[in-house]
């Protein structure tokens, strides 16, 4: 229950923005823990990931979403990513529209047009302020973009360094519905299974260790996941579209696959709090990005948040 004098607020906030703008980094920063995968390559987030932020004044169900592309192209995967991102808006009470402090382009414009159509309250989150070499450029930028929409608030932040991140969460709460009680279990981090998050951590290290082309052609599924008190045994498959990509992922003498496995294992051990035995396989599945059944296997269908 809320204290007598304190009003609790709770609700969902969708984090939207173009690819690579820092949405997942912001989610992880506010959770104080890694949940959503990040990389220095666009379009890494493929799912709607929910992370729960529990604060003294309330709770925020943060919805991280795939970067929205202006022109998604013909591939079923890309279209599904855009649908997922825009679909999160239907669940949201408030939107964080994330843009970069040093750039505003057509893709931002396109997303803003979609937000206008939805008519939800929108906070403009101007990220990566740590990258600005000349700080005096920030104010004119904020003035210029601030008039493009009736934003409920505009906040410059650095998701990477943490500047203003806490203020952003506190400011968002004020725009969420007042509630009698905390709707979520404060100990619950996400609506995703540990199995799902583990597959994502493997994909993160895969993406990080490869060049530009293969990451988008790669997917990860978990074949088995056996939890024991001190050891978790995981067997997973990395799917690619062509034999050449399989060879790249495995690397000379299996070195690359070994390194991906070792980094992913450490990340999963942190998440699970147990030792992890991780077995990785690489298999070819031509055209998986256009195979709706396989996309469903990858959980591109959204789960529902289990209310407590
Ligand atoms: N300098 C700086 N870099 C940042 C900041 N926030 C994120 N980044 C970097 O930007 C890159 C992309 O970050 P992500 O969080 O993966 O971006 P995203 O918007 O989730 O990307 P998509 O999955 O493509 O939608 C990573 O290399 C981050 O480390 C920031 O505040 N400052």
TrEMBL record:
GO terms for molecular function: GTP binding; GTPase activity; ribosomal small subunit binding; small ribosomal subunit rRNA binding. Residues 202-286 form the KH type-2 domain. One of its GO terms (cellular component) is cytosol. Pfam families: KH_2, MMR_HSR1. Residues 9-178 form the Era-type G domain. Residues 43-47 are annotated as: G2. Monomer. This is GTPase Era. It comes from Acidihalobacter aeolianus. The gene is era.
């Amino acid at each position: 229950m809320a204290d007598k004098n304190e009003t609790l607020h709770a609700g969902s906030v969708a984090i939207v923005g173009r690819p690579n703008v820092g949405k997942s980094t912001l989610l992880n920063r506010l959770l104080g823990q890694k949940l959503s995968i990040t990389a220095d390559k666009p379009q890494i987030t493929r799912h709607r990931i929910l992370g729960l932020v529990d604060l003294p004044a309330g709770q925020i169900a943060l919805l991280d979403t795939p970067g929205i592309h202006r022109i998604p192209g013909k591939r079923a995967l890309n279209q599904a990513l855009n649908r997922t991102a825009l679909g999160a808006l239907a669940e949201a009470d408030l939107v964080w529209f994330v843009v970069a402090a040093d750039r505003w382009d057509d893709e931002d414009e396109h997303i803003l047009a979609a937000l206008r159509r939805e008519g939800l309250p929108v906070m403009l989150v101007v990220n990566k302020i740590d990258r600005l070499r000349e700080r005096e450029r920030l104010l004119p930028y904020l003035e210029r973009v601030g008039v493009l929409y009736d934003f409920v608030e505009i906040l410059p932040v650095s998701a990477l360094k943490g500047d203003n991140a806490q203020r952003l969460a506190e400011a968002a709460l004020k725009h969420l519905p007042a509630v009698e009680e905390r709707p979520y279990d404060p100990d619950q981090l996400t609506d995703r299974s540990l199995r799902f998050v583990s597959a994502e951590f493997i994909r993160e290290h895969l993406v990080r260790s490869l060049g530009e082309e293969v990451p988008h052609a790669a997917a990860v599924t978990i074949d088995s996941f056996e939890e024991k008190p001190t050891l978790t045994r995981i067997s997973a498959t990395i799917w690619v579209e062509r034999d050449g990509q399989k060879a790249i992922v495995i690397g000379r003498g299996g070195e690359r696959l070994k390194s991906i496995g070792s980094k992913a294992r450490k990340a999963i051990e942190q998440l699970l709090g147990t030792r992890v035995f991780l077995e990785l396989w690489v298999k070819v599945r031509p055209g998986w990005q256009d195979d709706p059944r396989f996309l469903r296997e990858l959980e591109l269908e959204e789960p529902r948040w289990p209310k407590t």
